[in-house]
Amino acid sequence: MTTADGLLSRLAGLDRQGLATVLAHRPDVLEEPWPRRLDVVAARLASAASVNAALLGLTTPHAQVLRALQLCHALGVRPAPVAEVARLLGAEDTVVESFVDDLEERVLAWREPGGVTLPELLHATNFRPDGLGEPAANLLGELGTTRLAQLSRAVGLPAGGRRAELLLGLVRFFRDADGLRELAGTAPEPVRKLLRDMAEGVPEINAVTPLPGTPEAWAFEHGLLFATYYGSAAMPVEVSLALRGPEHPLSFTPSEPECPLTHVGAESAEASSSAAALRLLDRVSAILELAAAEPFPLLKDGTIGSRLIKKVAKDTGGTAGEIELAIDLAVQTGLLLVQEPDPPRRGQKAAPPTLEPDPDVVRPGPALLHRLLLTTWWEPARPDTDTQVRQLVVRLLARLEPGTGITGTDAVTELATWHAPMLVTEEFAGQVAAALVEGELMGVFAHGAVTAAGRALLAPEKLVEVTEELVSRARTTALFGTDLTAIVPGSPDARLATLLDRAADRENQGTATSWRFSPSTVRRAFDQGVTAAELLEELGGIASGELPQPLVYLVNDVARRHGEAQVLDVASVVVGEPAVLTELAAHRKLAKLGLRAVAPTVLTSTVDASGTLDALRDAGYAPTHHAGDGSIVLPSRDQSEPKVTFEDPETADRPVDPLDHADRLLAAPPTGPNLQRGQLARAMSDRYAGRLTPKQQQLCWQLEAGIPVDVVYRADGAEPVRLVVAYPELDGAVLDVWSLEDRGYRRLELARIDLA
Fold this sequence. Notes:
The chain is α+β, with helices and mostly antiparallel strands. It contains 32 helices and 26 strands. The protein has a five-stranded mixed β-sheet, with helices on one face. The protein is elongated, with a radius of gyration of 37 Å.
């Protein structure tokens, strides 16, 4: 009987609540397409992928109890009495019982008369991580009959008989702990010390060989050590446990470590969370603006270079960590797209791919954008161990009272290690630290405490309310000073920050953010197509009072000079007033342009329009860019209207209650027919009078293989509908299929199905 067969009988004996508990602990078995019956649930529970996913969710004591069960199984104690497991762990039976109950709810172990048994996938034969080696039965199985006879004679067992009899007698001998300790007590003193040292946690060592005449040879002759293929000496599990004695059990830590707590207050945490969320939105908005003006080049490996990260951080006033996270999330949400360059011409170097905003996407509002960033960080399209670690850290800290956190990254790492020992790798401490840092930038953590945004990730129905509250705290006005500065006390909202970034440079950021206006920054706004009247109106709309006169004079003065010279695309022609052009032609810094007067108001340049514009601006002039017909050229991002909008995930996207699945599964037959190869094609041939085209036969075979297929279904009194279906089961003249659009099963009459 396979593991799946055994599980099916156990699942069929569960009530509604018991089955729902199993499904809640093993949610991967409910992935679409949902299991039709209990036999499908049993098969998924018995799969290696599902078992491995369940192991990752075990805490340290659960894993230790499971390890003790595996050791009992390897030593032939099947099923394993709870008392024997408790003895190996040095714990009370009642304590171990509770952890066995949890393992049974996860279908990683189950009780049978006489003890606890394990699914086949969890059988183990190597216990080196526990300071133990392999069972004696494994080591003895590699020996020949002659060696088994010699070993039997050395330990006082009968040396005659067949190999199977010798092997059985030796296995029984090695499972007698008292006999092994008595045998080890007769060893020479140097050998006894070696055996004690190895039993303490070093089950295999090098530089010890069974050479005749050496003290160590005695241990090999009596089976307390075995020579391996690699030339090392290995001690069987039974010998290690016997020499340790009952006072030295396996590791068992049933209580989670105590962690020092820090109390920052709920209000303070939420204020910091709001500031972090608004700062992140500001960074993302600024990045999109910069990428629209000049796409970000990617390195050969498809990543953003550190030099570009530093440059963007300087331009936006952020840190490298903030910018790296903001760009990564913007790419994952689809706000930034990778654009591949056109193939280079012969002899030219290929241009690198770039990151730039999707022109078809409407920028989401602040609250929706924050929800998109949060959910993408929480559940990325390609989850990895970093995702599992950050979700673990959020869940652990969310158990504390609002405004309370754990002091120190090391304490959080220790707690996370206890709760998820199977996740621990050499990079685990770094992953926990990264989760805490990123969580602070996202507004999920504040001073080590989980905020309302973090708790909403665990309760998605509250996410809209929480994010709306967070962004509502953003400042929408600025204080303008006579020294050409604008100050926002607190966090600016995305619209305010974008407007000020367009016409001013950021100077300081912290509890307040300041911008400074200058002729070059105001000219930058004009270069993007804004007029003086429009700029003054926009700035007046965000000012908490009247705009100061120095700023108004600056805007109007730059506006008067803006366009004093015009750069045309046609052969790079510069047009302007005669006096200005005479000055340009004589300017030494502009000699590289090869300016040449062809008329009192016209200069030609040997450099293209873009290079000429840059050179004139570097020299302190304020030219404008015009097309060949004389019309001004505005940034390309203003020339198209986006069409695609982001929306919140639908409620249907959230997981279904395990109780609902339990009701559905218990109402269905526990088993069903398996679709055989070619069976669907034969059934459909009746629909087409025995004549299936090769294309129709291929579609039937694809369905049988689980590949989605387009079909047209003609129901009574309704218009034909096109469906994408997969995972069929044949029930007489009815085809039971999974509909990808409906995200559920549908029963289709064969006579009404047209293969598209």
